[in-house]
């Protein structure tokens, strides 16, 4: 079927759809497999022969309840043998594993579903997935009357599906009229005392359980319930005890596909159960459930298209249950917007105010663990379903240990989905091994950075530029526009200017050097500069980036303490310097202006602390998730 390649219909102006890459992939897979011919609709139960062989649906439900579906996923059909693991779980819950094991084994039979496969010494069915074992399991459903047992069965099945399920009465009648082989099996079980009463009541319940009406979406949610430890992910209702889920999935793994079980385990590698109604239900424990519906069956009684779809899903999305993630959790570690978390670049008061108002348009998702298809799907869904208007999505892969090919393709598909909405994807990957967008044209690749702070700084610039233009976003300002001069009348500004010294600088030049005695407060009017801290081990770390409208060295206004960092010019510019002597002189000629300048410095310090408090609050979720 080929590797995972989510494709979007395209025009010169971009993709025609804004759906998730998962929807796009399932749509392409459905279209590809729909042309597959072969197999026959089951006819040994006459009512089943009425199914339309063109019906075809695919559905994936995640363990947290999100459903992806394509095709005839709401077409009703009878559950048939897919009911068997569900009934086995009821029997285990009602009687316990030891008691059930005396009536039903767990060994693969290697036979067809309707073979009379009984242990030669005890007469017990080899497993609960063949008809003999399923009939025995039905006999173990607790209830004082046949109606009570049926009510209990339907209640459990409904809990799995998340909605009330009923019988397909024409199918039940057809089962009742044609089920002679199952009657023979029932009487043989009675002869070995596997059934302890007349078999007709048990057979009637078995025919009814096989006739429960479901659709493909129901089966996917049933599978997701098993993936979710026995609780329906949408309703939260428990369908089966958590400790019994392993037992149910075990027999689905070894016996769920009958005499195709070995090849299924090799090619697909998911606990599964098929039914002659055309359904297949598969489970990736802890992650998701898969359901496929297509009536034409192969010689083993499995859906032809269903088998092909499950093979493709397992291969394309790397879902084989023996492909285990190396970490216990692969998920979103934290998420926040640029309203609450900023880069290390200190910006002007005007720019800070603007970023405060538009910062929600850029969101950061910090990821961790192994990024496989299930965790990648959760990330893509969080992005696609974000309710706020979004212009930039930053995915930080710094703490991601592995990016699988399906996950990389999911993220590549996200580029198109975001472009359709006028948004852009940004990937932060220090190791440059994510492969997101590899082999794609430049227009279909995400913006890439090796450092989160650099990516956030770039994103800030993008938000500012689209609203103010490139010159105002990173240009020069007049002294009167500097925050330290806020509120000063022209005459006061003139007096301040008298005590300032001007300085121009070139890239690479040190404005101040760590350890030197502080010589004044620097007011940046143009250019960029980095604040560099020398660590005790000799390494150097960038603490911040300064731009027009920012200042540094305010401590020099009150103390001649040594500089705690080096400020190095990144881009040519100019600044004004207010030395301690100049500040004293300003106080002598205009004490009120001096007080206003000091007050503005204090306000700037307060705003810095407030911003850091917001960032700490936004990032605190990282400690809760790790």
Report the total helices.
Answer: 20
Low-confidence stretches: 1-17, 621-626
Number of domains: 3
Just give the CATH class of the largest domain: Alpha Beta
Distance between the termini: 38 Å
Looking at the structure, what is the overall shape?
Answer: elongated
**Looking at CATH, which topology of the largest domain would you report?**
Beta-lactamase
Strand content: 15-25%
Could you describe the 3D structure shown?
By secondary structure, the chain is α+β, with helices and mostly antiparallel strands. The chain has 3 domains: 22-317, 3-Layer(aba) Sandwich (Beta-lactamase); 331-473, 2-Layer Sandwich (Transcription Regulator spoIIAA); 479-601, Jelly Rolls, CATH 2.60.120. 40% of the residues lie in helices and 19% in strands. It is built from 20 helices and 21 strands. Strands 11, 16, 17, 18, 19, 20 and 21 form a 7-stranded mixed sheet that branches. Strands 4-3-9-8-7 form a 5-stranded antiparallel sheet. It has a 5-stranded mixed sheet with strand order 10-12-13-14-15, with helices on both faces. It starts with 9 loop residues before the first strand and ends with a helix.
In short:
With 626 residues, the chain is α+β, with helices and mostly antiparallel strands. The protein is elongated, with a radius of gyration of 34 Å.
């Amino acid at each position: 079927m080929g590797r995972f390649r989510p494709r979007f219909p395209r025009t010169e102006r971009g993709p025609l759809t804004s759906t998730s890459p998962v929807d796009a992939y399932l749509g392409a897979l459905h279209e590809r497999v729909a042309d597959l011919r072969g197999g026959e609709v089951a006819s040994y139960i006459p009512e089943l022969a009425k199914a339309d062989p063109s019906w075809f649906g695919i559905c994936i439900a995640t363990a947290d309840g999100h459903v992806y579906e394509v095709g005839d996923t709401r077409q009703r059909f009878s559950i048939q043998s897919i009911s068997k693991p569900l009934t086995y779980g009821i029997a285990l819950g009602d009687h316990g594993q030891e008691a059930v094991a005396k009536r039903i084994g767990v060994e693969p039979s290697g036979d067809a579903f309707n073979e009379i496969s009984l242990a030669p010494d005890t007469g017990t069915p080899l497993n609960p997935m063949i008809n003999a074992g399923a009939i025995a399991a039905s006999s173990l459903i607790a209830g004082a009357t046949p109606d009570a047992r049926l009510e209990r069965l339907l209640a459990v099945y409904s809990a799995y599906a998340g909605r009330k399920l009923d019988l397909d009465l024409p199918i039940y009648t057809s089962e009742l009229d044609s089920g002679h082989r199952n009657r023979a099996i029932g009487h043989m079980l009675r002869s070995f005392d596997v059934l302890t009463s007349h078999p007709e009541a048990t057979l009637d319940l078995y025919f009814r359980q096989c006739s429960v009406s479901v659709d493909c979406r129901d089966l996917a949610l049933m599978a997701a319930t098993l993936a979710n430890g026995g609780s329906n992910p949408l309703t939260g209702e428990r369908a089966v005890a958590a400790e019994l889920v392993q037992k149910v999935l075990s027999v689905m793994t070894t016996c769920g596909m009958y005499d195709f079980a070995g090849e299924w385990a090799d090619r697909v590698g998911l606990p599964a159960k098929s039914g002659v109604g055309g359904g297949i239900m598969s489970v990736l424990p802890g992650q998701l459930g898969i359901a496929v519906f297509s009536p034409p069956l192969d010689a083993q009684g499995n859906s032809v298209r269903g088998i092909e779809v499950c093979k493709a899903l397992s291969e394309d999305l790397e879902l084989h249950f023996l492909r285990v993630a190396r970490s216990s959790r692969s998920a979103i570690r934290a998420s926040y917007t640029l309203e609450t978390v900023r880069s290390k670049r200190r910006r002007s008061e005007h720019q800070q105010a603007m970023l405060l108002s538009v910062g929600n348009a850029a969101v950061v998702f910090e990821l961790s663990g192994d990024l496989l298809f299930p965790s990648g799907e959760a990330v893509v869904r969080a992005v696609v379903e974000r309710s706020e208007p979004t212009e930039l999505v930053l995915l930080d892969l710094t703490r991601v240990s592995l990016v699988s090919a399906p996950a990389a393709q999911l993220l590549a598909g996200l580029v198109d989905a975001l472009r359709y909405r006028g948004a852009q994807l940004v990937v932060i990957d220090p190791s440059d091994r994510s492969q997101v967008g590899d082999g794609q044209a430049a227009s279909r690749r995400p913006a890439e950075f090796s450092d989160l702070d650099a990516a956030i700084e770039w994103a800030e610039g993008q938000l500012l530029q689209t609203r103010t233009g490139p010159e105002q976003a990173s240009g020069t300002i007049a002294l009167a526009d500097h925050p330290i001069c806020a509120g000063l009348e022209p005459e006061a500004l003139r007096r301040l200017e008298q005590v300032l010294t001007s300085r121009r600088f070139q890239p690479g030049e040190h404005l101040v050097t760590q350890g030197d005695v502080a010589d004044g407060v620097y007011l940046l009017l143009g250019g960029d500069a980095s604040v560099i801290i020398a660590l005790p081990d000799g390494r150097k770390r960038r603490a911040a980036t300064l731009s027009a409208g920012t200042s540094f060295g305010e401590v020099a206004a009150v103390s001649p303490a040594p500089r705690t960092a080096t400020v190095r010019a990144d881009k040519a510019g100019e600044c004004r310097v207010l030395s301690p002597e100049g500040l004293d002189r300003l106080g002598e000629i205009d004490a009120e202006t001096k007080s206003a300048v000091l007050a503005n410095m204090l306000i700037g310090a307060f705003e810095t602390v407030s911003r850091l408090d917001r960032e700490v609050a936004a990032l605190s979720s990282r400690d809760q998730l790790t």
